[in-house]
Structures are given as structure tokens and as C-alpha cells.
Amino acid sequence: MHIALLAPMPPERNGIAAYADTFRCALEADGVRVSLPLRDVPGVISEPSLRQTLESVDWLSFDLVHGELGGGRAREFLALDWLSMHHPGLPLTATVHDPDRILWKPARMPGWLQRGPRWANQAAVLLMNPLTLSRERELASRLSQVITLTRTGTDGLRRSMRLSGDRVRHIPHGTHPLPAEPLPPLPPAGPLRLLYFGFMYRGKGIEDLIDAMALLREGHDDLGTRLELTLAGGTTPDLAFGAQEGYLDSLRQRLSSAGLEDVPMQWRLDVPDAEIASLIQTHHVMVLPYRESAKLARLGRMRGTSGAFAWAAACGRSVVTSNARAFPEEVSFGNGAVFPQGNANALKEELEHLLDHPECIQERSERAAQVGLERRWPKIASEFHAMFNEQCARKRPS
Predict the structure, then answer these.
(1) Of 93, 78, 76, 69, which is closest to residue 1 (Cα–Cα)?
(2) What would the pLDDT profile of 12-59 be if each residue is shown by its tens digit?
(3) Could you tell me where the beta strands, DSSP code E, fall in 72-113?
(4) Cα(115)–Cα(103) distance, rounded to whole angstroms?
(5) Cis peptide before 130 (omega within 30 of 0)
(6) CB 300 within 8 A of CB 101
(7) Are 294 and 259 in contact (CB under 8 A)?
(8) For residue 37, how many other CB atoms are within 10 A of its CB?
(9) Distance separating alpha carbons of residues 231 and 224, to the nearest angstrom
């Protein structure tokens, strides 16, 4: 089988690019030939230029085209839209990373508006939302199969895109098989080692984690001997919803004002892929305190997941997470705990529970390892391969 994969790819720095690159390798290991016809196409490109590129590709040399949609990026959306009209016999499938919606904002905005103040751009997105939603639904109706990474996202996308039950399928985010099997044990008894891992920008709720630790400090004079924190991940993500200048400086200022000078704290920025597993496994628990955007909430709900959950499961580590996105689903296997997003006091109580009941960390870690085993990338790739075969059998290129 020969498929075309339409997706951002490294060196682009975002979660979908990281997912797509691993997905491609897993498919190839499962016997699928994967081509990347848009690899050299800029992430932001005019529609006429993209159309010219699409017209130069021999699409009928592929058995199927699969897209990775999300992050507010229009390139893959526009490519699938063009293919659905110009090659209607070619099976088209897509993984939607940010359900309930596919695109979230207009595929094209006037240049003068993009260069204007941010409030004007946001107002235009809201005003144009009915047209955006209509265009999303049109494309969704022409896709052979749509994939979501969470069951919550599957249900939401069916409703928002008005798709029948069999048109949307749940295939979870794959986890990396690690070289060291069985997994190494938890770090020895001692300070509770907490890890935030992921790209760092507003919306990840790192401020709430700092505030929760400050609240915890008020009732524990010995917190500096009982707790350690690491903030790790990418510092310059490619974002579709605006720049994030000065964010790390604001976090450092918040830490300085929080009265946590006695709590061991380290930064691990832009961690190489080869060091991610060992970084996670030197900690007891991952904390993901994401917040949902109030502005995006006017357009719908994000019901996707994060690649950090996949890394935690692969490494056999539990997660304390906010109830943003579909995160409660990701820790519904006994592999973590949930607190209300934006509620630093509730997060403080979860951290206090871990300090007082360290035995639950072992139990949750064992469940996390089981989830990781069930979602290994070779298994996930085989599931995608079988789905691709189904779609090709139903709909052959004309």
C-alpha cells in the first residue's frame, strides 16, 4: 500500500508534527509506503500557490491520502478540500487532533486583517465562524473516514460535523516502545519529584502549578525536603494562534514571587528526543495543568489529548491533570487524578494527597504502564493499516 501523508513534519515544532513523524515511521515499519508530498511546502502558504503545488502531484499513484488536521493550520485542510473535489474517487482519511472542530478559524483571512491588532483578528474569527463551520462540515462529509485520538473527541466530532456513527473512529495516541524493558522502577523514596513536560506557552496552566505549590508551602514548612519540581519541554513552539513572547520570563517572575526558594527546582528546556524517556522516569508523577481558552470556547470545545500522556504511559508514570480537553478520559484507567482547571487550591489538595499517600503513586504507575503497553505504536499502526485497507476496498480511484 502506498499512501500520501499530509501533515506538518519536523523541524516544525508542535505536537502534531511530532505525532505525524512517529506515525509515519510506525506505518512504514508495518509495511505501508508513505510519501510526504507537502513536506517542502511552507506551513503558511497562499491558496493559489498551494493549488499549483497540488496540481503538480500525481495523486492517482497513491492508494489513499491521509491528513493530520489541527492546531488551526489550514494547509492540510485546504489540500484535502481540493482533493475531495478534483479526485473524488481517491480515498481520503484524516486524524482530527482538536475535535469538536476541524479547523477552528477561517482557512483564509485578508492580509490587512492578519497584520492588524489581535483583537480585530479575533473578532473576525468570531464573525466568520458560521462560514468556517459550514466549510468544515462540507469537508468532513467528503472524507472516507475520520479518526480522533479520544472517545470524547469522537462523540463531539460526530455531533459538530453531523456525521454518522461509523464515519468517525477512535484510535488512541500511540506510545513509544522503550529500549529498557521491563520499565525501571519509580525513583527511590524521598522527595516527591514532579514533572511538567510539554511545549511551554500560555494555556498550559503552568502558573496554576506554581500557585498550587505556593499554597502547599503555607502549610508545610518542610516542603523543601519533601517536593521537587522540573519544568521541561519546548520553548519556541510554532503556534497558529499567536506569539508568546516573554512567557518564560513571566514564569520565572512568578516563581520568584511565590516564596518557593527552598523547593528544589530545575528547568530542562528543549529536551532532545533521545533523553525524554529517562527524564520522565527520573520523576514520580507528571503534572499537566492545562487551561482551555475562553475565546476558543465561543467556537466549541477542544476534546483532544496531549502527546505528554503518551510519553507518561510509555514510561509507566501517572499524571495529575486538569479537566481540560479530554484529559479526564486519559486518566480514567486508574493512572492519575483530575482537578478543575484553573483551580490552584484543588491542585494543591491533589499534591498534598500524593505527599501523604505515596503508596497510590505506585498503584497509578502500574496502571499507566499497562495503558502504555496496550497502546504501543506497532499496534496502533496496524490498526490504521487495517482501516486504510478497508477504505481502499470500498472506494477505488476512478
Answers:
(1) 93
(2) 989 999 999 999 999 999 999 999 999 988 878 888 899 999 999 999
(3) 92-96
(4) 20
(5) no
(6) yes
(7) no
(8) 19
(9) 16
pTM: 0.93
- Give the mean pLDDT of 162-185: 90
Beta bridge partners of 96: 69
Distance CA 354, CA 360 (A): 7
**Sheet strand arrangement including 336-339:** 265-269, 227-233, 192-197, 285-288, 318-322, 336-339
Q: 383 Cβ partners below 8 Å, 6+ apart?
A: 171
- Show the domains of the chain with their CATH numbers: 2-174+376-394 (3.40.50.2000), 192-374 (3.40.50.2000)
In this structure, the chain runs to a length of 398
CA angle 115, 121, 124 (to 5 degrees): 130
Q: Distance between CA atoms of 72 and 239, rounded to whole angstroms?
A: 9
Cell of 72: 488551526
Please report the beta strands in the chain, taking only residues with DSSP state E, as ranges in sequence order. Answer: 2-6, 33-35, 64-69, 92-96, 145-148, 168-170, 192-197, 227-233, 265-269, 285-288, 318-322, 336-339
Cβ atoms 266, 255 nearer than 8 A: no
Amino acid sitting at position 371: V
The pLDDT tens digits for 208-222 are 999 999 999 998 989
Cα–Cα distances in Å, from 275 out to 39, 219, 267?
26, 35, 14
Q: What is the DSSP letter of 59?
A: G
pLDDT band at 89 (very low <50, low <70, confident <90, very high): very high
- Core vs surface per residue 199-233: b (16+ CB within 10 A) or e: bbbbebbbbbbbbbbbbbbeebeebeeebbbbbbb
Cα–Cα nearest to 141, from 118, 120, 164, 111 = 164
Residue listed under C-alpha cell 482551555: 292
User: Are the beta carbons of 66 and 36 closer than 8 angstroms?
Assistant: no
Cβ(81)–Cβ(139) below 8 Å:
yes
| Cβ(375)–Cβ(75) below 8 Å | no
Cell numbers 492578519 correspond to: 114
- Which residue shows C-alpha cell 504507575? 365
